[in-house]
Design brief:
The complex is a heterotrimer of chains A (122), B (500) and C (155). With 122 residues, chain A is mainly alpha-helical. Chain A contains four helices and no strands. In chain C, helix 2 packs antiparallel against helix 3, helix 3 packs parallel to helix 5 and helix 4 runs antiparallel to helix 5. Classes of the chains: A mainly alpha (122), B mainly alpha (500), C mainly alpha (155).
Chain lengths: 122, 500, 155
């Protein structure tokens, strides 16, 4: 059991962050806090992929003259990093769209608290 | 030479149009609608050509940027993706032709934005259908999702909040999918769909793979509005403009259902899934629950769009039930129902758009009494689509439900059979309520009616009526020719491991 | 979503030049530096953290800094507000245009190896091809972020 935690503590931590973000999205009543929760969820997933690319004793995937190029174990797995570049862009764009929606809601209703909003919309 | 590029041309043409529309709109505003309709028509033509090629010659593989799979991204046009791309582009074409008037009426002043976003949405949806790479699927999923959030945000005063709710839930669904994909990638080492399906049997029993698959199914289920993850759908479809709903509602959830079909029939061996894991059983039960819940909620609604939105939840339940059966008959039922439901729901939402443009609203009790006289064709199209939804032959809806019932009987799953029959009866209740309002309310004696309402209700303009009638006729054609459709298009796509 | 040919009067009203001379001078001094760093980040996307998206964000940050420090109306010469959405479309078209150009030259989409430039060998063609589409990405990202800022100001 201890070996699992020692070897995979990063994954446990990131799943905990994911759950905290999900909890925030569900429970918090202010729309801005829901957006923060959503951002936490996305960041946790992105970091999960990045952590999966780690190898012991490896360096970043930039050609290092002091290390041999043929031995792939000396370099990190670059694929999750490149995929997560795209995922980060997607996360940022989603945040942008959500903020635009929040601004429209705020300008019309002057509040971002969900119970007040639902009242005003009736 | 052109045929080999078809898997690329469908999403890329939509993307090109999405970028050309802002520039074209600087010259002439009407050009945005024309460019959108022309591009969708072109892509529909490509999709039909692709389907003909796939049925006669064989599948089409397209290696993006020349890199061989599994190192590069590939687009695959096999019988399943060709079939889905045909009806996705076809229904989108009719919805966009219809949208010309509705956009001018409901969300005037933003044509360029609407059509550009519609093209991005279709690029994302068609990309999701043709791609053969699991991460590329996520990218196209998010493209289509972001475009749909923005499309839904214009409409009612309540539209921004509905779009925000859809945004948070949809992004969470995509995050679940990505997390599940991380587990699968870490176990298998590849992202190409065909490659993963070959490598998975070696590591299939391990916990990360099962967890990854479950998370991916959960994420896609949220996008598909599988019960109980459907909470975003009712508000989003109701408060959006009629044009946006008519575009997103028929095809958005169907493409997510396509992804679920890919995950549960092609990525993993469905026999293994059915025997060793509870995943298909769970999906099937959630589909059955969604069917009952959606139908019951639809019965309580007075507003047509909201009723149709809950009805969509129920219909997605049918597809999920077919997937959950994990058998050839279930597969045929699910795929045929995706096609039928896209056409039926599109027809219903287009008629609602006609009502909104002519009457200003689509609330059931407030409908004018003499619609059967003033808008006969729209009412007839609604009737045809309603009868098809209930499931009466020879219209299309009956045959997909028939296959689902056959599949449930084959597995001795009498609960599913009961749910299917009960849901059809519930469908009958809320649709016949609308038909009663349209056809059976006695007309007030002449001279008594309000002059303003009598003068305002004419039939919908031709550009809106034509797509509606085309879809209504298509339901009849699809119903009559359903055996040919199943034998020519659907039987070849059943995965060979299923043992048909 | 923008409307056809709108004047940005409300934005000009809401965002005047800053009242503090420090902010005005500092934003004028910092903006070119940020732009140079943005270009550096864009060009070095091959070899170090960076690339089209990141460079585009930095370039947009410089323009938004100018808009906030010097006022909306005064910075129209730097980036006219009516140009932002069309420039974004042009950037995307550079990307797709390069892809379709590869198709026309006989290869697959975005297959840089088939470009008709015989003085370059395929690895260099791939390298320069990716750099070229990153130009499109940078342009799109920069103009879109500035467009978002302008339209949020304008209401």
């Amino acid at each position: 059991m201890l070996e699992i935690i020692k070897g995979y503590y990063a994954y446990f931590f990131l799943v905990a962050v994911f759950c905290i973000g999900l909890f925030g999205m569900m429970v918090k009543r202010n729309l801005m806090k829901k957006v923060m929760g959503m951002s936490m969820v996305q960041s946790a997933v992105i970091l999960f992929w990045i952590v999966s690319a780690f190898k012991e004793g490896a360096t970043v995937t930039v050609l290092d003259p002091t290390r041999e190029v043929e031995n792939a174990d000396l370099y990190l797995n670059p694929l999750p990093h490149t995929l997560m570049l795209t995922a980060i862009v997607v996360a940022v764009v989603t945040l942008g769209v959500s903020f635009a929606l929040l601004i429209v809601i705020y300008r019309r209703y002057r509040t971002l608290e969900e119970p007040l909003l639902l009242e005003k919309m009736q | 030479m052109m045929t080999s590029h078809i898997p690329l041309l469908i999403p890329a043409s939509f993307l090109l149009a999405a970028l050309l529309i802002p520039l074209a709109a600087l010259l002439w505003r009407r050009l945005s609608w024309l460019l959108a309709v022309a591009t969708t028509g072109l892509c529909f033509f490509y999709a039909v050509k692709g389907l003909v090629h796939v049925t006669t010659v064989g599948r089409l593989h397209y290696h993006l940027a020349g890199w061989q799979p599994p190192f590069g991204i590939e687009f695959v046009l096999d019988p399943l993706s060709a079939f889905f791309s045909v009806f996705v582009t076809g229904v989108a074409l009719l919805a966009l032709i219809h949208a010309g008037r509705v956009v001018a009426h409901e969300v005037s002043g933003v044509d360029m934005g609407f059509y550009s976003l519609a093209m991005l949405l279709l690029a994302g949806l068609s990309g999701m259908v043709v791609t053969g790479d699991l991460f590329n699927l996520y990218v196209f999923l998010e493209i289509s999702a972001l475009a749909s959030y923005a499309l839904i945000a214009r409409g009612d005063p309540r539209a921004p909040l509905s779009a925000f709710r859809y945004l948070t839930l949809g992004t969470t669904g995509a995050a679940f999918y990505l997390l599940g994909l991380a587990f699968v990638y870490m176990s298998v080492g590849s992202l190409n769909l065909a490659d993963v399906s070959q490598l998975l049997p070696d590591v299939g029993d391990t916990r990360p793979v099962l967890l990854g698959l479950s998370l991916m199914v959960l994420g896609i289920g949220l996008k598909m509005a599988l019960f109980p993850l459907h909470a975003w759908l009712a508000d989003a479809y109701t408060h959006a403009s009629s044009a946006a709903t008519a575009l997103i509602a028929p095809i958005g959830t169907k493409v997510a259902a396509y992804v679920l079909l890919r995950l549960m029939f092609f990525l993993v061996d469905p026999q293994y899934l059915r025997d060793q894991t509870p995943l298909p059983a769970i999906v099937g039960c959630l589909g059955a629950a969604g069917m009952l819940w959606g139908s019951i909620m639809a019965m309580c609604q007075k507003e047509l769009k909201r009723m149709l939105a809950y009805s969509s939840v129920a219909q997605v339940g049918y597809i999920a039930l077919g997937i959950g059966l994990a058998s050839p008959l279930g597969f045929i039922g699910a795929t045929l129902h995706a096609l039928n439901h896209a056409c039926m729901k599109a027809c219903l939402f287009l008629v609602t758009g006609n009502f909104r443009v002519r009457l200003g609203h689509s609330t059931l009790p407030r409908l004018v009494d003499d619609l059967r006289r003033t808008m006969p064709w729209s009412a007839a199209a609604f009737t045809a689509a309603a009868i098809s939804m209930v499931g009466l032959p020879p219209l299309a809806g009956f045959f997909s439900k028939w296959y689902l019932v056959l599949g449930s009987i084959q597995q001795s799953n009498w609960v599913f059979v009961a749910v299917l029959v009960a849901s059809s009866l519930l469908n009958a209740v809320y649709f016949f309520r609308v038909l009663e309002r349209l056809y059976l309310t006695p007309l007030a004696p002449p001279g008594d009616t309000d002059v303003a309402t009598a003068a305002a209700t004419r039939e919908a303009p031709a550009s809106m009526l034509a797509p509606t009638l085309v879809l209504a006729c298509a339901l009849l054609v699809l119903g009559i020719f359903n055996a040919w459709i199943v034998s020519t298009f659907i039987n070849p796509m059943i995965p060979s491991r299923l043992g048909w | 979503m923008i409307e056809h040919a709108r004047p940005f009067d409300l934005a000009a009203e809401r965002c005047g030049p800053s009242s503090s001379p420090i902010i005005r001078i500092a934003s004028r001094g910092l903006a070119p530096l940020i732009q140079i760093i943005g270009l550096y980040v864009f060009f070095h996307g091959h070899y170090s953290p960076g690339g089209g998206f990141q460079g585009g964000v930095l370039l947009a940050a410089s323009i938004i800094l100018l808009r906030m420090g010097l006022g909306f109306a005064n910075t129209q010469t730097v980036m006219p507000s009516g140009w932002t959405v069309p420039l974004g479309a042009v950037g995307g078209l550079i990307y797709i245009g390069t892809g379709f150009f590869a198709v026309l030259c006989g290869g697959n989409f975005l297959d840089y190896g088939v470009f008709p430039m015989p003085w370059l060998d395929p690895p260099h063609l791939h390298s320069y091809g990716i750099l070229f589409i990153e130009v499109g990405v940078t342009l799109t990202v920069m103009s879109t972020l500035v467009a978002i800022f302008d339209h949020l100001l304008d209401g």
